[in-house]
Design goal:
Blueprint (H helix, E strand, L loop, with lengths): L9 E11 L5 E8 L8 E2 L2 E3 L6 H13 L1 E2 L5 E9 L7 E9 L2 E2 L7 E7 L12 H9 L4 E7 L7 E8 L16
Parallel strand pairs: 1-7, 6-10
Antiparallel strand pairs: 1-2, 1-4, 2-3, 2-9, 5-8, 6-7, 10-11
Length: 181
């Protein structure tokens, strides 16, 4: 019997933020990728875990490094994403965290130019294809567990997506969305 080689899963994390402007507009933090994989795309803030970090610590660090913002309180664990790339070594296990009403001032770094985007105007045509499957749900209070499979070509087209509710978390989400009058 031939031994099957198992791919090692890369551990990454994502952390975004939401805010409500003084005018009552609900916005999400995104970033323009300035270098590395995905240059030119609009992305959710995030990256790899440093040695000794847990995903939440990495998410908070990445948020501050890539945007200059800090969570005002605890970040919320809002999704678990698994990305698979058949024939490649890019598979990722990615918890997603969200910070409502973060503190600090936006600043650019060498990798990301952060910006606030109205939630109802997500630039999905400039983002990785997977974002359309999970980010709108997360922003509207639904915790998501998703496995997303991309093609192995350079086009990185989603060929399959399976989403389910993330049931290991029982508290309702509070993302800072404006309340109805």
């Amino acid at each position: 019997m031939a031994m099957q080689h198992r791919k090692q899963m890369c551990r990454t994390t994502l952390c975004t933020a939401t805010r409500t402007t003084d005018a009552g507009r609900w916005e999400v933090l995104l970033g323009e990728k300035l270098s590395g994989r995905g240059t030119g795309r609009t992305v959710v803030i995030g990256g790899h875990l440093d040695p000794g970090e847990n995903p939440e610590q990495a998410a908070v660090r990445e948020l501050e490094e890539e945007s200059g913002l800090r969570p005002a309180g605890r970040v919320l664990h809002v999704a678990n994403l698994t990305f698979t790339f058949p024939g490649q070594r890019w598979d990722h296990s990615t918890p997603v965290f969200l910070a409502a009403e973060p503190e600090g001032r936006l600043r650019e770094c060498a990798e990301i130019r952060p910006f606030w985007c109205p939630v109802e105007e997500l630039p999905l045509d400039r983002m990785w294809a997977d974002v359309a499957y999970w980010l709108p749900q997360v922003l509207h209070g639904i915790r998501v567990k998703a496995t997303i499979t991309y093609t192995s070509s350079d086009r990185l087209v989603v060929t399959g997506a399976h989403l389910a509710h993330l049931t290991d978390l029982d508290k309702p989400l509070s993302l800072g969305a404006p309340t109805a009058p």
